[in-house]
Amino acid sequence: MSAAIPKEQWAQVVIKTGGPIEYKKIPVQQPGPDEVLINIKYSGVCHTDLHAVNGDWPLPTKLPLVGGHEGAGVVVAVGDNVYDIKVGDYGGVKWINGSCLSCDFCQQSDEPLCANALLSGYTVDGTFQQYCIAKAAHMARIPKECDLEAIAPVLCAGITVYKGLKESGARPGQSVAIVGAGGGLGSLACQYAKAMGLDIIAIDAGDEKREMTKQLGAQHFVDFSTSKNVVSDVKAATVDGLGPHAVILVAVNEKPFQQAAEYVRPRGTVVAIGLPAGAYLRAPVFESVIKMITIKGSYVGNRKDSAEAIEFFRRGLIKAPYKTCGLSELQNVYKMMQEGKIAGRYVVDTSK
Ligand code: NAD
Ligand code: ZN
């Protein structure tokens, strides 16, 4: 059933919340009847992984924990009840590792809302190891012509922003502000928004991110670190000065979550995706009412959103920049991420 699978493997393990992480050898697990074992070749590093190490959220992680949830690799073993995946297939491990498939939400394809969802790199071990388990029903199906290194960031960042853009209701020709556009989710959001025919206002800091978001398809850039008035600068970047039809919040600071309602266009939609620690959304009641705005959250995507986001990539529409380093260097990636120094995404190569 399976090729030579080692008994031990390299992994990055969170021993206690707050870190540091430990690069060490741990046993390789065996898949259960409804699971597959994937030899992870590459994994993207999402800011969520850093939130998990830092204990930023009101939801505890398992401990010890192998983080990571943007893993792309090759299936090396399948459980007895798995009929549609075979050894050798390309598979992706995403944030939703598994869900019950029978609750009210799962029945309506809102799997991320399942109360019993398993979260990769959070409540179950994730992709910062060489061999990772995924529930077969949720494993991302990756076509063979896709490059495993380049597609890794699509498995969380791509799926999440694709879903968020759909949730925003923005249509081709309309405008979208992407807040945190220079980060991992933001860079993918620029590419999906471009593919959807939207006019993009990128909001982030510094010349490197300005240049990168321009390359990715953003027509405008507002630097939050130097702008005297972000609200008026964002409005001014729209053709008629009335503000963007949609705002995609993927920043890791609270402030923009308290500004977006002020510059979104009347009838527009603010989609909160980023999850800064302890943060609150804020909106003025008067303007929110008379502008008839919508404020909503968006949380990863279901299996169909995932397949669609991967299909955009397969068709060559999504080319976001990433840098690659060894899994052994993950701690350094976290350091750069904490300092906001990463333009785009980092991907770790599990063989190094
Ligand atoms: P990242 O660190 O790669 O990018 C964050 C970006 O936000 C950086 O470029 C940073 O400069 C920018 N930023 C910081 N303050 C800002 C401000 N005031 N205005 C504009 N931009 C600002 O992080 P990431 O991996 O892209 O993740 C972003 C967030 O999304 C994290 O909180 C993560 O946990 C969350 N997330 C949510 C979901 C979901 O399903 N809702 C899924 C994945 C990630
Ligand atoms: Zn993520």
From TrEMBL:
Keyword Zinc: yes
Keywords for the protein's UniProt record, in alphabetical order: Metal-binding, NAD, Oxidoreductase, Zinc
Listed name of the protein: alcohol dehydrogenase
SMART domains hit by this protein: PKS_ER
Top-rank taxon: Eukaryota
GO MF: alcohol dehydrogenase (NAD+) activity; zinc ion binding
Alphabetical list of InterPro entries matching this protein: ADH-like_C, ADH-like_N, ADH_Zn_CS, ER, GroES-like_sf, NAD(P)-bd_dom_sf
Entry EC number(s): 1.1.1.1
GO cellular-component term (any): cytoplasm
Family: Belongs to the zinc-containing alcohol dehydrogenase family.
All residue ranges annotated as the Enoyl reductase (ER) domain in the record: 18-348
Name of the top EC class for this enzyme: oxidoreductase
Pfam families (alphabetical): ADH_N, ADH_zinc_N
Cofactor or coenzyme needed: Zn(2+)
SUPFAM superfamilies: GroES-like, NAD(P)-binding Rossmann-fold domains
